[in-house]
Records
---
Amino acid sequence: MRILLVGAGGVGGAFTAIAARRDFFETVVIADYDPARAATAAATDDRYVAAQVDASSAESVTALCRTHRITHVMNAVDPVFAMSIFNGAFAAGADYLDMAMSLSKPHPESPYEKTGVKLGDEQFAVAGDWEAAGRLALVGMGVEPGLSDVFARYAADHLFAEIDELGTRDGANLVVTDEAGNEIFAPSFSMWTTIEECLNPPVIWQDGGWHTTAPFSEPEVFDFPEGIGPVECVNVEHEEVLLMPRWIDCRRATFKYGLGEELITILKVLHALGLDRTEKVRVKGVEVSPRDVVAAVLPDPATVGPRMTGKTCAGLWVTGTGKDADGNPTGPRSTYLFHVVDNEQTMAEYGHQCVVWQTAINPVIALELLATGVWQGAGVLGPEAFDAVPFLDLLTAYGSPWGQREQ
């Protein structure tokens, strides 16, 4: 396996640190728009090679694939670049993985009732081309989406006879401080992506169809495990809701995230001021995207780890009718499948903060399963299309076990 990793930022850097401990691949070409950042990541292992790439150019991706005889392209940049990398991989005859799918566009007349272009629609539109070519595009293979989708497959296969709701619930108790020890606002993940998914109309799957609702709707307090505790969660647009119902029967699918009052207020202000816009505006003779400016002035998520404390939890709350080992229904069941990561641990063992580390470990595991032939497929597929057990076993073998709690 010869991997092209597009993006050497927070998640890309964590990806290289995790993969360096495994032996399933021949080489990883670490490509970034900033050649110095790619070189820094590549210096950590003799199987790594640095390169420069323009992620907005499918031709640039294709050329790198051909030069380095790439078999698998790993997309680790913001989803605005998803389609160029996706198309570049296909043109080169390589398989493809991402952690965030092609972008959505709200319904022009009824954005909080009807779906417009949904997350991943552009990719699923050409699924037949990938299948005909015998190539695999494994989409939504981060932590969220990704691990929760694996949990959904596991729940359907082993825990539930019928599923009422697949409810992704993510929360954390992370705190970032400045040099003086004062708590500051510093997102632990890409601010560009956070703005995108939190201000777009959230999608809900209900009784056989997708519909939308208003941002930050249906607040609920969810009690997260391992000391994180109760966190208020709200609806957020996310890929799980667009992926899970394609492979798993359920009456309802939702994604709720514990954003916190401060972040919700900031997002609302950014929207009111137009600073969430991606269209460029002219400022003193220079054209800039307001959202790019917001992301640029905030601390780089890759750098906040040493000043961050706490844990992050990704998980799936499944309700419905349980089943026994023979597949017989056992009555009502409510189960939370989860993965908790402590920032202190990932910083000490890998030198990367917990949110980007938790995101990066899942595509590394998926690539290992593909390299060994345990996972096989062609077309545009989500994690739900594959057996969950080998994935969860490897997650534990990597030293980061998952948990299960009856609610």
---
Amino acid sequence: MQNFVLNLTNENVTLTAYLPDYSPEMPYLDKRSAVLVIPGGGYYMCSDREAEPVAFGFLGSGFAAFILRYSLKENSAFPRPLDDAREALKIIREHAEEWRIDPQKIAAIGFSAGGHLTAALSTMSDERPNAQILGYPCILEKIGKILAEPIPGVDTEVDEKTPPAFIFASSEDDCVPIINSLEYAKALDKYKIPFEMHIFSQGWHGFSRADDTVYGKDEEVEYNKDCNIWFDLCVRWLKKIFK
């Protein structure tokens, strides 16, 4: 596997690549699909719990994986983070042949504030992923009060060019209420954009993989364990989208 870090244009913004090696034993993986991972953290930080554990999961499922660590804190006013995500996606496509990636099979996955950035990349950018995966995403403009900087609402930005979506969240999330996910799904439905959505009855905000790859205490794993099925459901959905 190749692993390297690229510095992007904006200060302290990086793109970390994990590229599986090609093997003639698996010729059907000559060109892989790819996933761009965009962690959450309120635009104050990029959560490590929503970075490598997620990227490694997709690696193990046959995808190339990338992690974007984007502009934060005083540098996070829009559209700066969106510029970071657009640049990352463009770099992946520009190097698709070299990195053995299918440039038309690139998904972006984002969590919480990273979900907002993923949805913005999928609706407001001239460079869009081919699929979007949103984990307990910040969507509505009013949720900006808990973030480092105000954000544009992305539910109003959905159009006919928006890619298919996979959305998951917990109904007991009192940090980013599920109205954010529901309003985004409503906007997707308005434009007949295919989507799949799973709302779990129990789970903390920021549950990520919801297993012992991100939780160190048994009681944390136990409480969130019913949410961890999102990953297998997502991989199944994504492989169907990218047939």
---
Amino acid sequence: MKKEFNLKVLLILSLGHLTVDIYQGALPATLPFIKDKLDLSYALAGLILVAANMASSILQPVFGYLSDRKAMPMLLPMGLLAAGTGFSMIMIPAHFALVLFLVVISGLGVASYHPEGYKTAHFFTGERSATGMSIFSVGGNLGFSLGPILALSLIGYLGAPALPLILVPALVSTVVILAYRRTVAAPLVSHSEAVRKTKTRTTTDAYVALCLVIFIVIMRSWTQLGLMTYIPFYYINVLKGNPLFAGKLVSVFLACGAIGTLLGAPLADRWGYRFFVRLSMFLSTVTLPFFFLPAVQNSILIFFVLGLQGVFLVATFSVTIVMAQKILPHKLGVASGLLVGFAIGTGGMGVTLLGIVADRFGVPAALQSIMIIPLVGFIASLFLREGEEEESSPAGIKR
């Protein structure tokens, strides 16, 4: 079906995306407080992130599969409420198992929103797919950047009992989504009916191409979530710095990632997705080592370096999603769930490995080990073949 650009709908969907990712972004920043409250090891603190990623990311393809079988627009408001409710109560329990339970509830809300959100956004992006998708994607980038500073501000100024106030954005976004539910749902129903009437087959080459894109996203995600998690640990536990300062560092990193998403998408539409993915991973590889220079860590330059890293690393966020959707045009929910969910979640599981490194060799060693990850992603991007960003035919054969 022909896609038409609709900025209003994209902004509504982006608002919901911003909201659910506030709770994802806030979790790593609250880990030091949860760790201290429950007297956890770094490995157990990392296990909280594993539970979050299993629920919010690894399970996304399941929701995508269900969405491809039948239009399910109600996943959007339901996901918002679950994500906000679960996270808002995370500082209340005194038992590790209850914290994990709340993390899973919040994660399932995130998992239900993302595939349906990216699938819905696909129909409102117009001809310049990456540019249109970046408007939806940037909401998530902004949510990740706002999450740490919002959670740390509530805890720092009002105390841990005030964290439930972070539920307010979820309530507001749910009301907005419900107010425009008919407009949002219309193309989903039409697409679902068209897919049921069409017999499709995805080729082996398409799956191979998809696996390569997924691997690159795993490397990007591992780098991003590793920095998000261990920058607070490094500045709070190692340097004995202000927790709010650590939250600002993470927020700058992620806010600049949002800028990179918006600036990068039009360039990718013009230069080609394959070239842009390679450029992004290369620039991320050469920028990250500057973070570890003492002259950078002890000055305002730390914000500049982390900002550049955010721009370069996250610039391909919407680009890789569009690549996956073009490879699997009749399985938009699965394609979105695999890229935004499985790939990012698998990358996030690498944070547990970083936790083992931190327990054995210290937090600085865990941070330094991150440097190799974007290099692996860049090497993988060299194997992307010409034409993998082109849209597939109904049979899954490249035009």
---
Amino acid sequence: METPDDVRAALRCCTLCPRRCRVDRTRGTGFCGAGASVRLALVSLHPWEEPCLTGGAQGRGAGTVFFSHCTLRCCYCQNHEISHEGKGEDVTVARLADIFLEQQARGAATLDLVTPTHYVPQILAALRSARARGFTLPVVYNSSGYETVETIDALAGEVAIYLPDLKYIDEEPAREYSAAPDYFAYASRAIEAMVRQTGPVDFAPDGTLRRGVLVRHLVLPGHRHESMRVLDWLHGTFGDAVQISLMNQYTPMYRAAEHKDLGRRLTTFEYESVVEHALALGITRCYVQEGRTADTKFVPHFDGRGVRS
């Protein structure tokens, strides 16, 4: 079985992301580049996600499934060879369900679906199949944040943890860096829908996240004041209902150097000033990064491991 009939029907006029291309993906591709088949670049146990997703000291890591193609065009994307260039291998829905079960058998703490938006119909079909065969891992929807409320609503009951980015508030950098001037308008509504769906973050006694929304924000060089406004919005809207992950790991990769400010690393002052702003706001649920995390050694090798049986 290549693609179930209900999945093919959902892809014949694709409106899964805010671009709403309405392309028939059984015959061609829209902005993201994805067709009817799921394309994967890597299946792995990933130890570098936030501690609440990897099982902590006793865990073997998050069970990452890296999907190829993307609904954004971030000029600094560390995963550009799969997000922009489409590197990967096509798999059936049946094989995707097997992969979910294999991640569970490897001892993954969570099933971490990385850049999944454009494959939601196939993912839902694969999850139904896997659950019928004993799949029980918490599902993490690891997303750019550029989502429609309709797509988030379709995931109700299947996703335990949402892991969206909140990249920008301002229209100009969203347009210049990611080709999405409407980014915040959609991401803000999508994150609100995620929180409505899951409720406040719920941690187990050992610190693992059982349910809720963990919002990532990458501080960009030259944009610390925008990062502060991102924190203002998150704290003013949700208080302690969400967990925040404030990242200092920006690495100038891909086409970053073509854009003002992005051709250099983040300074210690820039990052620490954003952390101090979080403290001044009274934010208590926030991961911060210490030391040098801006390094290409943290970029996965997209060699197709775990994709084929």
